[in-house]
Amino acid sequence: MKMKKALSLIVGTTLVTTALAGCGASKDDGKTSGSGGETPAVSKISVALGTGNLPYVTGSRDINNDKYVKKLEELSGTDLNLQLIPHENYSQNITLMFASGELPELLQTKGINTQEVAPAIDAGNLQPLDELIDKYGPNLKKYIPKESWDSARVSKDGKIYGIPQENPILNTTVTYIRQDWLDKLGLKAPKTVEEYIEVLRAFRDNDPNGNGKKDEIPFSARSKFSFGTAFFGAYDVHPKLWKLVDGQLTPNFIRPEMKDALKLHRQLYEEKLLDNEFLVMTGKDWDNKIKGTGVVGMWAHDASYPDKWENDVKASVPSAKVSVINSPVGPSGKPGGVDNINSTVSDYVWVIPKSAKNAEQIIKFLDWFYDPANKAKDDFLEFGLEGDNFTMDNGAVKYNYPKTAEETSAEFMHQSWLAFTGPKKHLTDESFIKNRPGGDKILASLAIAKTEGIKDDGLGMPVMPTLQSRPELNYDGLWLEFASKVITGKESVDKFDDFVNDWKKRGGDQLIKEATEWYNKTQK
């Protein structure tokens, strides 16, 4: 219980703490079809992981007694003590957790090379996993590709410190639009930046939601430009990414093309085509604008579940239609994108702190997700609980595809949130996708995702020494401050060159030098 109390103290009331699941807790008696590998002896594991802002999770009164969690425990032979980390300020909460010195036995991170986790490697606070994987993780070793193990988010200096989640979709973020608004106004899906601006103006001026009020928000994003980088992508200057320029690995936010991108964002903000609250927008408030009140015309998010988005918006606006469209094409005429073309490592990487005494059991638990002989496990993760989410018909699964926002959130619970690692069959099984309501919409979204996405020459780069000591040199430091002032009209974009010179003097030149050395050593 010591770890649990520490987590509560670290993040105060923002951290959802849940009761420790006792050894004698009753198990849900829902059953999945088929049989699989042997169920191991019960292993107790404390786990800290993010809520993902998933309504099913955030709305749970006791996540450790949830029926899906109980089934996962039953099938895997574990007794999990899940500690929820709020989606808001996720990285800051991880930092505070490490600072406290009180850690769970299994921790979900965004990678071992992130600013909040990298110092823990150097301090020896995380366990190297190579020998443990060799002894207790045969499936992890066999099915996780070498590219994932070699990722800087997973390994450092030839040692493995993390177990990655699988990423079958390399470009995961696409542009969403209210198709019913386009239809009502007689508009076609925009393609170029100029066409996008005209559509957004029409959303602002022509009352597409039909309530007689000028309350539409044409385009919305979250703080730090989260899910709001499509127009930067059009100019090939996504602010988080790096590009090799004249032999130097350079952050996009200091490249000359950024100046035009900032001018455009100033225009979008000034004309109220871009949500004027986006700079302080939390995920919860953003969700509410799109889903709760249904006043947003365009946004960006995961390519794999447009059906979920449509169901969520329909919950408040029954007539709503949501489509995925190609992201804006900029001056180059080439496809842009909202985000970078990623690696085979998905959003999260699991690490085991040195303080954990049961690393062997943890590796066995994670290895279980890749067990090819365990059909019961596969059926549960893909289809959920028999009787609740599916029935059996002559030995075949008859899946109850979700029809409401609540059902969709529950589906995401067993398919993604509880799938700590392992293959994501719900994203790769084309027949499963096609047969669901909105399946054609999902396949169309995934097809669009394959046509766009931004190349990041710094993909997999660890946190450079200069960035560790001068975090303000990152995109969410000095640049974000400058960009926010330009976009809101408090600073002229003509000061861009001055900003770049100042950034370089503060350590940016040294950061570029270190990044270039890393690139030349590892990427050539």
- Helix/strand structural class: alpha+beta
Strand order of the largest sheet: 2-1-3-13-6
β-sheet strand percentage: 5-15%
Regions with little confidence, pLDDT below 50 for 5+ residues = 1-37
**Assembly state:** single chain
CATH class of the largest domain: Alpha Beta
Number of strands: 15
Percent of residues in helices comes to 40-55%
- Round the Cα radius of gyration to an integer and report it: 23 Å
Overall number of structural domains: 2
Judging from the principal axes of the Cα atoms, what is the shape? globular
The biggest beta sheet reads: 5 strands, mixed
Tally of DSSP helical segments: 23
**CATH homologous superfamily (4th level) name of the largest domain:** Periplasmic binding protein-like II
Distance between the termini: 49 Å
What is the CATH topology classification name of the largest domain? D-Maltodextrin-Binding Protein, domain 2
CATH-scheme architecture of the largest domain: 3-Layer(aba) Sandwich
What is the mean pLDDT?
Answer: 90
